[in-house]
Design a protein that fits this description.
The protein is of the alpha/beta class. Helices cover 45% and strands 23% of the residues. The chain has a single domain, classed as Rossmann fold (3-Layer(aba) Sandwich), CATH 3.40.50.150. It is globular and about 45 Å long.
């Protein structure tokens, strides 16, 4: 991601973001869904990238399975949290780098068996460039796991309207993309990926529960995770 006020915004909230995984029902569900997908697609992987690694939660989850991981994030605060946790865990196989995506992939960069990216791509203006970067960082047959806001969610429509009226939530000014699953499929398929499966999640709020009763998980869930195979 480009260096801008967004990375400063994330750095200032790094500690509270990490704490959300133990205090927020939606973040707890995010962890449950993501670890389930990692348990399914990580076996057999030797090396993985975690793009937009945040506090490194999923990087360390993969490292505990014996997978070498390189985590990238543009936020100083997030990288500091990763390095602190790495020291606590005496982790010798995980590496973290401060990088703004998309980057130009060079021949000396190692190709991965698995690439994960949780709730990052929506903040990057050049989504096509990010999809190309993901392709270049993966080996043929490698797996991409990516999550982002669900455009079909009723809450996302409300959030967009609320921001236009009030300027809140403040983070929304950094959001560049909202996609349906069909729109995301098209973007990644055009950049050399084959769709495998998806799952909607982040639907534990009262608003989401009401939406689920009326329209199902497609409109009640704020996030979606998608699995792709690199051609």
């Amino acid at each position: 991601m480009a260096e801008n006020s967004f990375t400063e915004h994330i750095s200032s909230r790094a500690g509270s973001f990490k704490g959300n995984y133990s205090s927020s029902d939606d973040f707890k569900q995010r962890y449950e869904v993501w670890t389930r997908f990692l348990d399914k697609y990580a076996p057999g992987a030797n090396f993985a990238y975690d793009i937009g690694c945040g506090p490194g939660l999923f990087s360390f989850y993969l490292a505990e399975k014996g997978i070498r991981v390189e985590g990238w994030d543009g936020s100083d605060g997030m990288i500091e949290l990763c390095e602190e946790e790495k020291t606590k865990k005496s982790d010798k196989i995980t590496k973290f780098r401060k990088l703004y995506i998309p980057v130009s992939v060079t021949p000396d960069m190692e190709r991965a068996d698995l690439l994960i990216s949780s709730s990052v791509i929506e903040y990057v203006p050049d989504s096509d460039g990010v999809a190309k970067m993901f392709n270049h960082l993966l080996k043929p047959g490698g797996t991409l796991l990516v999550s982002f806001p669900n455009k079909s969610s009723w809450y996302r429509s409300f959030e967009k309207l609320a921001f236009r009226i009030s300027g809140k939530p403040s983070y929304y000014k950094f959001v560049h993309h909202l996609w349906t699953t069909d729109e995301a499929k098209k973007i990644f398929e055009l950049n050399g990926f084959e769709f495998i499966e998806h799952e909607f999640y982040a639907n534990r709020s009262l608003f989401s529960k009401l939406a689920d009763m009326l329209g199902g998980k497609k409109v009640s869930s704020n996030l979606v995770i998608m699995a792709f195979r690199r051609n």
